[in-house]
Design a protein that fits this description.
Helix 1 (6-20) crosses helix 2 and helix 4 runs parallel beside helix 7. The longest helix is centred in the N-terminal third of the chain and has 23 residues, at 48-70. The protein is an all-alpha fold. It has nine helices and no strands. The protein has helices at 6-20, 27-34, 38-44, 48-70, 78-90, 95-105, 109-123, 131-153, 160-174. This is AcrR family transcriptional regulator.
Amino acid sequence: MRESQRPQILEAGLRVAARNQGAAITLDAVASEAGVTKPGLMYHFPSRDALMVALVEYAACQLERRMAALLGGSDGTVEERYRSYVQAAADGQNMRAEWALWFHSSCRAELQEAWSRHLDRWLLIPEGMPPARRARLLTARLAADGLWAAQASGVGAPGKADAAAIVAHILGLIGEGGAE
């Protein structure tokens, strides 16, 4: 039995997304990048929509794996999960592709749902959390998203030293948790 070309195709899709910031994610472009025929690609992904959902799922899984690795396999506290999100978003191996796919998700509910399936458990803030603590977590997440977008797009991207200082500042916002 022949090994599935699905992972090879998804990796190729990430390269296409990164190179073109998602503008040219077509079946033809991904098939060409993967070194497969368009019918070969369509065996796994019968439409562009199916390919896009699979690419978002794949990118979200990679981000989730990086966060889990930072936590060393534990579920962690809400603050630890947020710290892992900040670090994974700032240091992502597929940052440009992930950001392009995130951007595409803004207009498509099925793509938003794919991100949510993987990130909601990491970013869930428990009910009853004190407002100041909740605001710090949300501010940290939104700052990390902004850093991610700047680094991935190249628009207003900080240099390496500034990015490290920004990450340290964002992590400082998260704090250790506990009562307010």
